[in-house]
């Protein structure tokens, strides 16, 4: 009897890991990281606040197809609280799932430019303490003429993560807004706050010849583990989900700066990390060394780089969850 129960529990755990860490879900912070941040939010909210989020989410125009129908079979026999927590995690992942919708629906719900920010863009009145350009430049001067331009689509629809987050926050808090629109906004707020804490969503690397128009936030730098952007997106893979969650809870409880800043400051935090910890001297020297080569070879990422990356990823995901929590407490 004991061995049979052990096998069942083991298979459940294995299936959960497959679902959460599937390579097909590797977009932005990958699905596991987005779900981890949402679980941290869920676990720190009061029951009435959790219920309010779930009530809003039930009005999502894709609630049946992308939430109820996608729930893992093993979870259907778990508690209502566990199912509710999974749905909030699915909401945080949903903006990436929207990329795979049929064309007509994707045109309505998929917004690729909302996930990132042009490194030249500077919030005009951010109050940010670190007003630095989001890009790193090798062998060339910053593109000064672009620093003075208006933000992308500043007077029209959102064109970047900062504008989209602001718009979705307003939409979610607006009690006069249709509930379906508020449900979609909830998904985007959960997703974008996490994405804003991923350094490679805040800028790019430019070089005099190889990356004249930028490396697309690390996507064009090949490493032994995949492109640099994907390596950072998947930084929290490797440990079991429950272990990662417990680790993030400990980090979150020790953080003191989670509620003291605004989105423009979160952007500047990411940009500082981009300059100091993502595009390190190792990465810069590699690009410069092969500036004239026909092809940029794979960069071998050493253990100390990867260890630092994982530490930063854990800290940033935990911070993003605390900041989501602070915002969501305003909901009515």
β-strand percent reads under 5%
User: The biggest beta sheet, please?
Assistant: 2 strands, parallel
Overall strand count: 4
Strand numbers in spatial order across the main sheet: 1-2
Question: Could you estimate the helical fraction of the residues in percent?
Answer: 40-55%
Structural class: mainly alpha
Radius of gyration: 20 Å
> DSSP helix count?
14
Q: What overall form do the CA principal axes indicate?
A: globular
Oligomer: single chain
Mean pLDDT: 85
* Low-confidence residue ranges: 1-27, 125-131, 144-156
Give the distance, in angstroms, between the N- and C-terminal Cα atoms.
48 Å
Strand-and-helix sequence, N→C? HHHHHHEHHHEEEHHHHH
Task: List the keywords.
332 residues, mainly alpha, two-stranded antiparallel sheet, 14 helices, 4 strands, 55% helix, disordered N terminus
Secondary-structure map with pairings?
Blueprint: H1 2-21, H2 31-44, H3 47-57, H4 63-68, H5 80-97, H6 103-109, E1 136-138, H7 144-147, H8 161-173, H9 179-196, E2 205-207, E3 222-223, E4 226-227, H10 228-233, H11 241-254, H12 263-278, H13 281-289, H14 303-328
Parallel strand pairs: 1-2
Antiparallel strand pairs: 3-4
Structure commentary:
It is built from 14 helices and four strands. A hairpin with a 2-residue loop joins strand 3 and strand 4. The termini are far apart. It has 332 residues and is mainly α. The N terminus is likely disordered.
């Amino acid at each position: 009897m004991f061995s049979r129960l052990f096998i069942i529990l083991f298979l459940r755990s294995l299936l959960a890991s497959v679902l959460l860490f599937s390579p097909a879900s590797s977009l932005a912070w990958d699905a596991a990281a987005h779900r981890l941040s949402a679980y941290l939010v869920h676990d720190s909210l009061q029951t009435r606040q959790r219920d309010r989020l779930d009530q809003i989410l039930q009005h999502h125009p894709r609630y049946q197809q992308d939430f109820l129908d996608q729930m893992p079979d093993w979870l259907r026999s778990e508690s209502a609280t566990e199912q509710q927590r999974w749905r909030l995690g699915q909401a945080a992942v949903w903006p990436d799932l929207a990329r795979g919708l049929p064309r007509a629906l994707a045109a309505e719900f998929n917004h690729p430019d909302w996930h990132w920010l042009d490194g030249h863009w500077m919030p005009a009145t951010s109050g940010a303490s670190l007003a630095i350009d989001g890009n790193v430049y090798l062998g060339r001067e910053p593109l000064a003429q672009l620093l003075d331009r208006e933000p992308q689509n500043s007077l029209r629809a959102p064109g970047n993560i900062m504008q989209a987050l602001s718009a979705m926050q307003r939409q979610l808090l607006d009690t006069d807004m249709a509930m379906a629109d508020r449900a979609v906004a909830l998904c985007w707020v959960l997703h974008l706050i996490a994405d804003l804490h991923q350094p490679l969503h805040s800028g790019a690397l430019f070089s005099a010849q190889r990356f004249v128009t930028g490396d697309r936030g690390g996507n064009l730098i090949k490493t032994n583990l995949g492109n640099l952007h994907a390596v950072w997106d998947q930084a929290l893979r490797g440990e079991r989900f429950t272990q990662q969650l417990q680790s993030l809870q400990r980090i979150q409880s020790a953080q003191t700066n989670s509620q003291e800043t605004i989105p423009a400051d979160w952007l500047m935090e990411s940009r500082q990390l981009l300059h100091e910890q993502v595009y390190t001297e190792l990465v810069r020297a590699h690009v410069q060394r092969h500036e004239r080569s026909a092809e940029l070879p794979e960069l071998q990422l050493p253990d100390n780089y990867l260890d630092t990356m994982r530490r930063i990823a854990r800290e940033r995901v935990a911070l993003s969850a605390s900041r989501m929590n602070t915002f969501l407490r305003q909901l009515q």
